[in-house]
Design brief:
The chain has one domain: Orthogonal Bundle (MetI-like fold). The protein is 78% helix and 0% strand. It contains twelve helices and no strands.
Protein backbone atom coordinates (compact mmCIF):
# COMPACT_ATOMS: atom_id res chain seq x y z
CA UNK A 1 0.00 0.00 0.00
CA UNK A 2 2.80 2.40 0.91
CA UNK A 3 4.73 1.52 -2.26
CA UNK A 4 1.62 2.13 -4.36
CA UNK A 5 1.13 5.51 -2.71
CA UNK A 6 4.76 6.43 -3.40
CA UNK A 7 4.40 5.48 -7.07
CA UNK A 8 1.20 7.53 -7.33
CA UNK A 9 2.90 10.57 -5.78
CA UNK A 10 5.88 10.10 -8.09
CA UNK A 11 3.64 9.92 -11.14
CA UNK A 12 1.77 13.03 -10.00
CA UNK A 13 5.06 14.87 -9.57
CA UNK A 14 6.25 14.05 -13.08
CA UNK A 15 2.87 15.00 -14.57
CA UNK A 16 3.07 18.35 -12.81
CA UNK A 17 6.66 18.84 -13.97
CA UNK A 18 5.66 18.06 -17.56
CA UNK A 19 2.72 20.47 -17.34
CA UNK A 20 5.05 23.25 -16.18
CA UNK A 21 8.05 22.54 -18.41
CA UNK A 22 6.57 21.39 -21.74
CA UNK A 23 5.47 24.92 -22.82
CA UNK A 24 8.97 26.23 -22.08
CA UNK A 25 10.59 23.36 -23.96
CA UNK A 26 8.27 23.88 -26.94
CA UNK A 27 9.12 27.60 -26.93
CA UNK A 28 12.86 26.89 -26.95
CA UNK A 29 12.46 24.37 -29.78
CA UNK A 30 10.52 26.91 -31.86
CA UNK A 31 13.40 29.37 -31.39
CA UNK A 32 15.64 26.92 -33.25
CA UNK A 33 13.33 26.51 -36.23
CA UNK A 34 14.66 27.59 -39.62
CA UNK A 35 11.52 29.20 -40.96
CA UNK A 36 9.49 32.39 -40.97
CA UNK A 37 6.62 31.13 -38.82
CA UNK A 38 6.10 29.12 -35.64
CA UNK A 39 4.63 25.67 -36.09
CA UNK A 40 5.21 22.04 -36.88
CA UNK A 41 6.80 20.24 -38.63
CA UNK A 42 10.38 21.46 -38.26
CA UNK A 43 12.43 20.52 -41.31
CA UNK A 44 15.70 22.29 -40.44
CA UNK A 45 17.36 23.94 -37.46
CA UNK A 46 19.24 27.22 -37.07
CA UNK A 47 20.71 29.60 -34.49
CA UNK A 48 20.14 32.70 -36.59
CA UNK A 49 17.20 33.89 -34.48
CA UNK A 50 19.37 33.91 -31.35
CA UNK A 51 22.11 35.78 -33.22
CA UNK A 52 19.54 38.28 -34.51
CA UNK A 53 18.14 38.79 -31.02
CA UNK A 54 21.60 39.42 -29.54
CA UNK A 55 22.49 41.83 -32.35
CA UNK A 56 19.25 43.86 -32.17
CA UNK A 57 20.06 47.31 -30.66
CA UNK A 58 16.42 47.83 -29.67
CA UNK A 59 16.44 44.62 -27.63
CA UNK A 60 19.74 45.51 -26.00
CA UNK A 61 18.39 48.93 -25.02
CA UNK A 62 15.24 47.37 -23.57
CA UNK A 63 17.32 44.83 -21.63
CA UNK A 64 19.56 47.53 -20.14
CA UNK A 65 16.55 49.65 -19.23
CA UNK A 66 14.79 46.69 -17.60
CA UNK A 67 17.92 45.90 -15.61
CA UNK A 68 18.21 49.50 -14.44
CA UNK A 69 14.58 49.64 -13.36
CA UNK A 70 14.83 46.25 -11.60
CA UNK A 71 18.01 47.30 -9.77
CA UNK A 72 16.64 50.57 -8.43
CA UNK A 73 13.29 49.07 -7.46
CA UNK A 74 15.06 46.22 -5.66
CA UNK A 75 17.30 48.59 -3.69
CA UNK A 76 14.34 50.75 -2.63
CA UNK A 77 12.22 47.72 -1.73
CA UNK A 78 15.03 46.09 0.26
CA UNK A 79 15.87 49.18 2.31
CA UNK A 80 12.23 50.11 2.93
CA UNK A 81 11.21 46.53 3.69
CA UNK A 82 14.01 45.91 6.20
CA UNK A 83 13.30 49.05 8.20
CA UNK A 84 9.55 48.38 8.06
CA UNK A 85 10.07 44.84 9.38
CA UNK A 86 12.24 46.21 12.20
CA UNK A 87 9.59 48.80 13.05
CA UNK A 88 6.91 46.10 13.21
CA UNK A 89 8.86 44.39 16.00
CA UNK A 90 7.96 47.30 18.28
CA UNK A 91 4.21 47.13 17.51
CA UNK A 92 2.13 44.73 19.58
CA UNK A 93 -1.41 43.42 19.65
CA UNK A 94 -4.03 44.05 17.00
CA UNK A 95 -2.17 47.09 15.74
CA UNK A 96 0.66 44.88 14.52
CA UNK A 97 -1.74 42.57 12.70
CA UNK A 98 -3.49 45.51 11.05
CA UNK A 99 -0.20 47.12 10.03
CA UNK A 100 1.11 43.82 8.61
CA UNK A 101 -2.11 43.27 6.64
CA UNK A 102 -1.94 46.77 5.14
CA UNK A 103 1.73 46.30 4.19
CA UNK A 104 0.98 42.97 2.47
CA UNK A 105 -2.08 44.34 0.65
CA UNK A 106 -0.21 44.95 -2.67
CA UNK A 107 0.54 41.22 -2.82
CA UNK A 108 -3.14 40.24 -2.94
CA UNK A 109 -4.59 43.13 -4.94
CA UNK A 110 -4.74 42.33 -8.69
CA UNK A 111 -1.82 43.79 -10.61
CA UNK A 112 -3.98 45.81 -12.94
CA UNK A 113 -5.84 47.44 -10.02
CA UNK A 114 -2.53 48.24 -8.37
CA UNK A 115 -1.15 49.70 -11.61
CA UNK A 116 -4.22 51.87 -12.19
CA UNK A 117 -4.05 53.18 -8.64
CA UNK A 118 -0.36 54.00 -9.00
CA UNK A 119 -1.01 55.78 -12.30
CA UNK A 120 -3.76 57.90 -10.75
CA UNK A 121 -1.58 58.69 -7.73
CA UNK A 122 1.47 59.72 -9.77
CA UNK A 123 -0.62 61.91 -12.03
CA UNK A 124 -2.33 63.54 -9.06
CA UNK A 125 1.02 64.65 -7.63
CA UNK A 126 2.21 65.93 -11.02
CA UNK A 127 4.65 63.09 -11.74
CA UNK A 128 4.68 62.19 -15.42
CA UNK A 129 4.92 58.58 -16.57
CA UNK A 130 8.50 57.41 -16.85
CA UNK A 131 11.30 55.73 -14.98
CA UNK A 132 10.52 57.30 -11.58
CA UNK A 133 6.89 56.15 -11.32
CA UNK A 134 7.79 52.74 -12.73
CA UNK A 135 10.55 52.21 -10.17
CA UNK A 136 8.29 53.31 -7.31
CA UNK A 137 5.49 51.06 -8.56
CA UNK A 138 7.72 48.00 -8.80
CA UNK A 139 9.28 48.77 -5.41
CA UNK A 140 5.83 48.94 -3.81
CA UNK A 141 5.26 45.39 -5.03
CA UNK A 142 8.58 44.20 -3.60
CA UNK A 143 8.28 45.78 -0.14
CA UNK A 144 5.69 43.25 1.15
CA UNK A 145 7.91 40.36 0.06
CA UNK A 146 10.90 41.81 1.92
CA UNK A 147 8.80 42.54 5.02
CA UNK A 148 7.33 39.04 5.06
CA UNK A 149 10.64 37.20 4.68
CA UNK A 150 12.59 39.46 7.05
CA UNK A 151 9.84 39.25 9.69
CA UNK A 152 9.96 35.47 9.61
CA UNK A 153 13.74 35.57 9.93
CA UNK A 154 13.64 38.08 12.79
CA UNK A 155 11.31 35.77 14.72
CA UNK A 156 14.20 33.28 15.04
CA UNK A 157 16.77 35.86 16.20
CA UNK A 158 17.78 35.17 19.84
CA UNK A 159 17.12 38.31 21.85
CA UNK A 160 20.06 37.40 24.07
CA UNK A 161 22.50 38.27 21.29
CA UNK A 162 21.16 41.80 20.90
CA UNK A 163 21.02 42.27 24.67
CA UNK A 164 24.61 41.06 24.98
CA UNK A 165 25.74 43.52 22.31
CA UNK A 166 23.96 46.37 24.08
CA UNK A 167 25.45 45.35 27.45
CA UNK A 168 28.91 45.48 25.87
CA UNK A 169 28.38 49.10 24.86
CA UNK A 170 27.07 48.77 21.31
CA UNK A 171 24.56 51.41 20.22
CA UNK A 172 21.40 50.61 18.26
CA UNK A 173 23.11 51.10 14.89
CA UNK A 174 26.16 49.04 15.86
CA UNK A 175 23.97 46.24 17.25
CA UNK A 176 21.98 46.20 14.04
CA UNK A 177 25.10 46.15 11.88
CA UNK A 178 26.93 43.50 13.91
CA UNK A 179 24.06 41.23 15.04
CA UNK A 180 20.74 41.80 13.28
CA UNK A 181 21.94 42.43 9.73
CA UNK A 182 24.12 39.28 9.46
CA UNK A 183 21.21 37.25 10.82
CA UNK A 184 18.61 38.53 8.34
CA UNK A 185 21.00 38.77 5.36
CA UNK A 186 19.90 35.48 3.71
CA UNK A 187 16.25 36.57 3.90
CA UNK A 188 17.07 40.00 2.50
CA UNK A 189 19.02 38.49 -0.38
CA UNK A 190 16.27 35.99 -1.23
CA UNK A 191 13.61 38.71 -1.14
CA UNK A 192 15.78 41.05 -3.21
CA UNK A 193 16.35 38.34 -5.81
CA UNK A 194 12.62 37.66 -6.05
CA UNK A 195 11.91 41.39 -6.35
CA UNK A 196 14.54 41.82 -9.07
CA UNK A 197 13.18 38.96 -11.16
CA UNK A 198 9.55 40.06 -10.76
CA UNK A 199 10.48 43.68 -11.56
CA UNK A 200 12.40 42.63 -14.65
CA UNK A 201 9.45 40.82 -16.24
CA UNK A 202 6.56 42.91 -14.87
CA UNK A 203 4.30 43.82 -17.77
CA UNK A 204 1.17 45.40 -16.30
CA UNK A 205 2.89 48.12 -14.27
CA UNK A 206 5.29 48.82 -17.13
CA UNK A 207 2.36 49.43 -19.48
CA UNK A 208 0.70 51.91 -17.12
CA UNK A 209 3.72 53.64 -15.59
CA UNK A 210 6.57 53.65 -18.11
CA UNK A 211 7.15 56.48 -20.54
CA UNK A 212 8.72 56.33 -23.97
CA UNK A 213 11.40 53.82 -22.97
CA UNK A 214 10.29 50.21 -23.25
CA UNK A 215 11.04 47.35 -20.91
CA UNK A 216 11.60 43.85 -22.23
CA UNK A 217 8.01 42.63 -21.62
CA UNK A 218 6.54 45.72 -23.30
CA UNK A 219 8.87 45.34 -26.27
CA UNK A 220 7.98 41.66 -26.62
CA UNK A 221 4.29 42.54 -26.59
CA UNK A 222 4.84 45.19 -29.26
CA UNK A 223 6.65 42.65 -31.45
CA UNK A 224 3.93 40.07 -30.80
CA UNK A 225 1.25 42.37 -32.21
CA UNK A 226 3.17 42.49 -35.50
CA UNK A 227 3.16 38.73 -35.96
CA UNK A 228 4.63 35.60 -34.40
CA UNK A 229 8.02 34.56 -35.73
CA UNK A 230 10.74 32.29 -34.28
CA UNK A 231 12.51 35.48 -33.14
CA UNK A 232 10.09 35.82 -30.22
CA UNK A 233 10.75 32.33 -28.79
CA UNK A 234 14.48 32.99 -29.17
CA UNK A 235 14.20 36.23 -27.16
CA UNK A 236 12.03 34.51 -24.56
CA UNK A 237 14.54 31.67 -24.27
CA UNK A 238 17.36 34.13 -23.62
CA UNK A 239 15.29 35.79 -20.89
CA UNK A 240 14.56 32.41 -19.28
CA UNK A 241 18.26 31.49 -19.34
CA UNK A 242 19.17 34.86 -17.80
CA UNK A 243 16.57 34.43 -15.03
CA UNK A 244 17.79 30.88 -14.37
CA UNK A 245 21.40 32.05 -14.17
CA UNK A 246 20.47 34.85 -11.77
CA UNK A 247 18.52 32.43 -9.61
CA UNK A 248 21.42 29.95 -9.48
CA UNK A 249 23.85 32.70 -8.51
CA UNK A 250 21.51 33.91 -5.77
CA UNK A 251 21.04 30.35 -4.48
CA UNK A 252 24.79 29.81 -4.41
CA UNK A 253 25.37 33.02 -2.45
CA UNK A 254 22.55 32.23 -0.02
CA UNK A 255 23.89 28.74 0.66
CA UNK A 256 27.41 30.04 1.28
CA UNK A 257 26.30 32.69 3.80
CA UNK A 258 25.89 30.38 6.80
CA UNK A 259 29.41 28.98 6.25
CA UNK A 260 30.91 32.49 6.03
CA UNK A 261 29.06 33.56 9.17
CA UNK A 262 30.26 30.47 11.02
Amino acid sequence: MIALRHRALGSLYWLLAAYLLLPLIFMEVMGLKDGAYIGLPIRSWTLKWFAEALADPELRAAFVYSMKVALWSTVIAAVTGVWTALALQHVQGWKRGLAFALICLPMVVPSIINAIGLRIFTQSIGLAAGTGPLVLGLASQGVPVVVLMVTVRLATLPRSQIEAARDLGAGPITAFRRVTLPWIRPAVLAAALFTALSSFDDFVRAIFLSGYEQTMPVLLYAKLTKGISPLLPAIATLIVLFSLLLGLVGDRITRSMPRRQT
